[in-house]
Amino acid sequence: MRSTSGEGSRPPADGWVKPPDTQTRALTWLAWTALGVSLLIMVAASIVRSSWMYPPVVMPSAGPPWDLTSVHVSAKVATTVLWVAAFLGAVGVVAGLAAVQRGARLNLRVLLITAAVTVIALTVLLPAGSTDAFDYATYGRLVTLGHSPYVTTPNYLRKLHNTYARSVPTTWDKYVSVYGPLATIEQFLAAKLGGFSAARIAFWLKLWNSIAFGIIAFTIDRLLRRDPARRLRGHLLWTINPLLLWDLVAAGHVDVIGAALGMLGLVVLGEQLAGSGSRPAMWRVLAAGALIGAAADIKINYALFGLGLAWALRRAPLAAAAAAGAAVVVLVPGYVWFGSPAAQALVDRRNGSSADTFYRFFLIDPHWGKHLAVIAGVVVVAVAVLVLLRMPPGAASRPAIRPAIALSAAWLFSWPYQLPWYDAMLVCLLVLYPATRLDWLVIARLLAGTWPNIPGNPYAPPGVVGVTHHIFVVTVAPLILLLAAIGLIALCVSGRWNLREPGEPPGAAPPETAGLVPSAAG
Fold it and tell me: Collapsing DSSP states into helix, strand and coil, what is residue 206?
């Protein structure tokens, strides 16, 4: 019997490989072309970032990061070509997944080398596509000066009127940090290494993010190495995915560190054979709790992984308590050190919503907006229960994966404040679950969220590009996100997940799930 666990235990010869036909070859060609062009555009735009991206940055005299200041590209041109790059990136991933599903075997070595070169190039260039990395740098700089980023806002540094003040973004300059204490410590270390240079601090932050991105890619590769089709699917969804490379690596968002810690926490729990009554070793339980606690200490939403872990250990109360204790030991000290302002910063954002939220279609009355968190909370819980009950079994030997996916999907698809880099928490686990139509919904969400955040400035270019950007924000993205949420509910209600392993004959279900009714089994 073949396993539907994250690793895949069958030898390559056992997989069904359809001889490539014209359509499969066309999909393969489209995947390589779209992915290649998309990545080239993103790297090129990052090289000339200073000509179109805010804030201005004083470059260090030597060493990374680098920027080509002699070439000028307008914000209109950069925005337009990056929109195209994002679309091509989504097309490339979809075409690649479809080709693999039809039996194609893309050259994995070329794929990994391309991804590695792209990650290295984006790492040594200035952050592009978002100003968040400079917010992180500012929070770290505040700590080096003896201030708490949960009390003192970045505007304090702007008032110092030095060269660093120019690089403090205005978008969030009057807001305290909303990141966990462990993220603040990471930002502090980057500020200590980067000194007075905002560019150098941002480089250290991006370097650690890229290492975390690589750790997830390496984990995917090792866990899925015995199954070429699953291995390719995993790298298409994560490693070579231009949307993730842009949102996580190019922009330098800290979410990728949380994703790496959280994923490792679920993976280190090990495998348990279904129905065998086996329990993970205590050291694995403690390590899992500690890693997930660290992920939540980066961004609190990764506590959802802890609920997935609790579900997997529900029949072992002692192990569940040990995991919770390990998470608390890691998570609590930072909040104790920074005090109540660190926790209050999270509470203060509870009613926030991103500009492209689909809730804008329903909350016309401003009075209802005051209760958005309560309304959305009810929706999230309802969707979470539905997905947990109706999501088909999969990754059976790692019982924490499925509930963590279900809870993450419910939150990401339903909560009003969402940005595309948040989806890292879902994609890093989805690669360990059999292929379903959820893959397509996740890619659609990534594209819909990325478009409105291009080019990443607090203002849109004037003219046609600005009008198009506005349409993306208020109409196109919210509509796609709404359709994706409806699609998730439709999959749950209809049961038409189309669950199968990459490379299985069309219509085939993984052996462990064939003939089973979707249930809440982990």
Answer: helix
SS3 40: helix
Q: How far apart are alpha carbons 344 and 353 in whole angstroms?
A: 18
Contact call for residues 134 and 167 (beta carbons, < 8 A): yes
β-partners of residue 500 are 435
Gap between the Cα atoms of 484 and 506, Å rounded: 24
Peptide bond into 518 cis (omega under 30): no
Of 327, 512, 516, nearest to 433 by C-alpha is 512
pLDDT tens for residues 171-213? Answer: 889 999 999 999 999 999 999 999 999 999 999 999 999 999 9
Distance CA 214, CA 234 (A): 13
Condensed to tens digits (0 to 9), the pLDDT of residues 34-73 reads 999 999 999 999 999 999 999 999 999 888 999 988 889 9
Q: Which residue has the tokens 């009613």?
A: 351
Separation between Cα atoms, residue 273 and residue 25, nearest integer Å? 38
Phi and psi, residue 68, nearest 5°: -95, 90
The answer to whether 425 and 301 are in contact (CB under 8 A) is: yes
Query: 367: burial class by Cβ within 10 Å (0-12, 13-18, 19+)?
Result: exposed
In order of 304, 306, 372, 389, 480, the CA distances from 376 in angstroms are 16, 21, 6, 20, 18
Q: What SS3 class is residue 500?
A: strand
Closest CA to 250 of 423, 138, 131: 131
Residue 383 has pLDDT above 80, yes or no: yes
Question: Cβ of 282: how many Cβ atoms within 10 Å?
Answer: 12
303-312 vs 401-414: helix crossing angle, rounded to 10: 150
- Which of helix, strand or coil describes residue 344? helix
In residues, how long is the chain? Answer: 522
Place of tokens 């499969």: 24
> What distance in Å separates the CA atoms of residue 306 and residue 395, rounded to the nearest whole number?
17
Q: How many CB atoms lie within 10 A of CB 136?
A: 28
Question: Does residue 160 sit in helix, strand or coil?
Answer: coil
DSSP class of 474? I
